[in-house]
What does this fold into?
Amino acid sequence: MARVLVNVPATARRGEIIEIKTLAAHHMETGFRRTQLGELIPRDIITRLVCTYNGEEIFRAELHPAIAANPLLTFSTVATESGTLEFRWSGDNGYAASHTASITVA
It folds into this structure.
């Protein structure tokens, strides 16, 4: 199982802009490096992060080989209602990770 960290405020006022931070632990291999024997090391990266807020997609990121080994992504959204944010990462070689966070909007 992949290690992910998500920082979402537990509460917010309706209409407030909230900041969301995500971090996925992954060793990330670009596919351009070679072993000591000259063989290419296969690419192994996280390729996508999708975040939904009560089932509606609010953020999507397509990642490429130049991204950091443990990508930290920060984005904002408007707190419209109480509910659940779901985060789904996917990548090469069957990599998949998910996390959910709740927010209460007053």
